[in-house]
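Schema walk-through. Below, the input block comes first and the output block second. Nothing else is stored per chain. Lengths vary across the set, and this one has 174 residues.
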Amino acid sequence: MMEALEMNSGVESAVYRLLDRIGADYMKIEHEPADTMEICAGIERHLGAPICKNLFLCNRQQTDFYLLMIPAGKVFKTKYLSSQLGCARLSFASEEQMVEYLGIRPGSVSPMGLMNDRGGKVRLVIDRDLLVLDTFGCHPCVNTSTVRLSMSDLIEKFLPAVGHGYTVVDLAGE
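--- output ---
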């Protein structure tokens, strides 16, 4: 247990060091583990920003990986995303793949994990509805903290710093 806590604090600290280095304006709050969107809903009120749903996906062959950011209340339907990305079928990637490519575990999925994807294997996909947000919340690679970050800092500072671009999709709302 202590080893897991030390690993978590190390990756979380690395996120904050990177955000500081690139001049991103952020606020962090610490809380009990939040590994579901229901738990995150309570954190949103304290954070003052919506928390995005982040899903780690892969194609059938498990050769292409995607990190999807969508509004928390939006239902994810793979057929809509698959057609926009031009792949036959998407499913959830395994925990092992999540650790290998993003350096994070289930319940902590976040665009901040892209800092660990040095090989550029993961493609960030953002639902168009999120691009209108001034700020949003996400985990700093651990689910015991949440950071509020501006969407412009994510796109203009963070993604270039970690060598990633992004793809915009329009997913139907329910």
